[in-house]
Amino acid sequence: MSDKPTKAEAVTETTQEVERIRDIIFGTQMRDYDRQFQTLQRDLERLQQEIDRLNEQLADQDSGHGKKLQTLRLEVRKADDDLRKELRDTAQKLTADKVDRVSLGQLFIELGTNLTAGGSLSELAQTLEHITQD
Fold it and tell me: What total of structural domains would you count in the chain?
């Protein structure tokens, strides 16, 4: 065996020497850069976690607002249906309760005739009662 180092050992020694020289020349700067990089990486991870948390919170709020909006739509629809029903009922009641124009005209004619003829109030009441029953 020879005292001469093998080629692999020579490359390893050369690499170690280059690393040592690099560490001497750039070691402090590289460590500073490494620390800054790690700090930035931690900050970035923290910010990413905060963004994820805010996204979840926003999704929850969006879901809650969607449910509230759906509830409000149902309430508005029910109120609209109730109002329409009430209007239909009122219109139907007015139609059923209104006095016919012909009957109202006859009533006024009888009233006018009774007033001109000088009739009594009891006759007028009987006449009006007779007209309203027809």
Answer: 1
What's the full length of the chain, in residues?
Answer: 134
Is residue 19 in a domain? no
For residue range 45-96, list pLDDT tens digits in order: 999 999 999 999 999 999 999 999 999 999 999 999 998 999 898 888 877 6
Alpha carbon distance 105, 109 (integer Å) = 6
Query: DSSP letter at 118?
Result: T
Domain span at residue 125 reads: 99-134
Residue 118 lies in a domain: yes
- pLDDT score at 2: 52
Q: Are 85 and 113 in contact (CB under 8 A)?
A: no
Measure the CA–CA gap between 62 and 17, rounded to whole angstroms.
Answer: 61
Residue 50 lies in a domain: no
Sole residue written with tokens 């080629």:
7
* Closest to 14 in 3D by CA, of 6, 25, 2: 6
Is 112 inside any structural domain?
yes
H-helix or E-strand spanning residue 77 = helix 7-97
Tell me the C-alpha distance between 88 and 82, whole Å: 10
